[in-house]
Design a protein that fits this description.
One of its GO terms (molecular function) is serine-type peptidase activity. This protein is α/β, with parallel strands linked by helices. The chain contains seven helices and eleven strands. The strands form two sheets. A seven-stranded mixed β-sheet has the order 3-2-4-5-1-8-9, sandwiched between helices. A four-stranded mixed β-sheet has the order 6-7-10-11. A hairpin with a 2-residue loop joins strand 8 and strand 9. The two termini are 14 Å apart.
Length: 248
Amino acid sequence: MGAPGPRRLLLVSNSTLRGGGYLGHCQQHVRSFLGQKVKRILFIPYALHDRDAYAKTAREKFESLGYGLDSIHDSPDPVEAVRKSEAIFIGGGNTFRLLKALYDNSLLQEIRKRVLEDGIPYMGSSAGTNVATFSINTTNDMPIVYPPSLQALGLVPFNINPHYLDPDVNSTHMGETRAERILQYHEEPNTPPVLGLREGAMLLVEGDKATLQGVTGARLFLRGEKPTEHEPGTDFSFLLTDGNSQKP
């Protein structure tokens, strides 16, 4: 069994694509995802240090799309802000800083309830996509702060690696490739699938249906299996079931 039916998520790999502005590459997806009913977005800027500047950038973008935006860091009561929210957007930055702030403000359970029980739309970009998943074990970020746990919101029962980068056969860099790092994760027992979302890709989740959107595709890593390549339009609904290591 997956989560209850109303779950609606738009999990974006990255907020800015080369040659475009903030959320420019996915603004049509954002508009169709949020629709006409949502009037205001609750923005969670905890992944960046300068929350005021971050909120200003996000507000300008969402206002240009026809939505008001309130930043949670301006609220005297973040829990109450989540409880009253119509839609939630968590932006990118450092995933460890973001998750620690969600724990520090006692927001994980509140966001889970709003999204999984009440059915409000959740949008994440980069770090905001990482925290929507099972855990932040497959983030690309440095652990600059120490959250009480690496377990995240768990709005989906698998992990995502945003900004997924394919190995460059011509590179002289001797560090691990992204694929090798994900393989190291899967060497540990009971680790869930990891969806490598390239920049320009996003995952739309509606209830128990998950669809790959965007332009660049994704690479799927299942523990003990060879990675597989997937084009935009791929149905990833099987990842939403608890026994998600098996393809349909």
